[in-house]
């Protein structure tokens, strides 16, 4: 059976969504590595991914709207896929944008690290205390840059795990796996 124009467009959209997912995952991984190592050149690579991520999202959405308009898919799997595409691409772009935001913050923090300002210990209670109130003993342990970075990396790796699982479920059109990821996210 010959492939229709719609089938070809759906396959292209699917491939581009997987490409965008891979780019978002790579960008997030590089941002996490830049946090861990303080590597400014890696931060630069992450920041440079902004335009390719936006361009790919735009390509996917244009092809999606062209397919919806010109091919007029009937109700069913194809229509649901095309209708969900803008939401999927927005989420993937947001992941990339957040990774880029992390990299930009790291670049801004570089002078502080060079001066040694961020490595000093700070008590969480001192960050939230009202200066007009009498100070009590801190109820929590002092924070250090290392402990904060460790927590951020843990959160980032969890986000990356969810992203990778979601993209595997998408690539395999595995609805039960996607549902499990969604339920586990709570």
Task: Please state the overall shape, judged from the principal axes of the Cα atoms.
Answer: elongated
Q: What's the CATH superfamily of the domain at 5-121, by name?
A: Phosphate transport system protein phou homolog 2, domain 2
Q: According to CATH, what is the topology of the domain at 5-121?
A: Methane Monooxygenase Hydroxylase, Chain G, domain 1
How many angstroms does the end-to-end distance come to? Answer: 44 Å
CATH class of the domain at 5-121: Mainly Alpha
Poorly predicted tracts of residues: 118-129
- Strand content range: under 5%
Q: How many H/I helices?
A: 7
Question: Secondary-structure map with pairings?
Answer:
Blueprint: H1 5-37, H2 40-48, H3 50-71, H4 77-115, E1 122-123, H5 124-128, E2 142-143, H6 145-171, H7 175-184
Antiparallel strand pairs: 1-2
Helix pairs in contact: 1-2, 1-3, 1-4, 1-6, 2-4, 3-4, 6-7
Concise synopsis of the structure shown:
The protein is built from seven helices and two strands, in the order H-H-H-H-E-H-E-H-H. The protein is mainly alpha-helical and 186 residues long.
Can you offer a commentary on this structure?
The chain is mostly helical and 186 residues long. It has a domain at 5-121: Methane Monooxygenase Hydroxylase, Chain G, domain 1 (Up-down Bundle), CATH 1.20.58.220. Helix content is 78%, strand content 2%. Residues 118-129 have low confidence and may be disordered.
């Amino acid at each position: 059976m010959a492939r229709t124009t719609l089938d070809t467009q759906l396959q292209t959209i699917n491939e581009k969504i997987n490409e965008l997912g891979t780019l978002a995952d790579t960008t997030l991984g590089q941002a996490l590595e830049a946090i861990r190592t303080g590597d400014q050149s890696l931060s630069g690579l992450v920041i440079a991914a902004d335009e390719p991520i936006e361009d790919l999202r735009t390509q996917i959405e244009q092809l999606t709207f062209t397919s919806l308009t010109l091919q007029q898919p009937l109700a069913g799997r194809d229509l649901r896929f095309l209708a969900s595409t803008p939401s999927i691409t927005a989420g993937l772009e947001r992941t990339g944008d957040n990774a880029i935001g992390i990299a930009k913050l790291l670049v801004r923090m570089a002078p502080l690290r060079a001066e040694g300002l961020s490595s000093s210990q700070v008590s969480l209670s001192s960050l939230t205390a009202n200066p007009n109130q009498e100070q009590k003993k801190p109820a929590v342990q002092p924070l250090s840059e290392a402990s904060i970075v460790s927590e951020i990396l843990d959160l980032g790796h969890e986000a990356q795990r969810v992203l990778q699982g979601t993209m595997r479920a998408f690539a395999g059109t595995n609805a039960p796996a996607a549902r499990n990821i969604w339920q586990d996210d709570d």
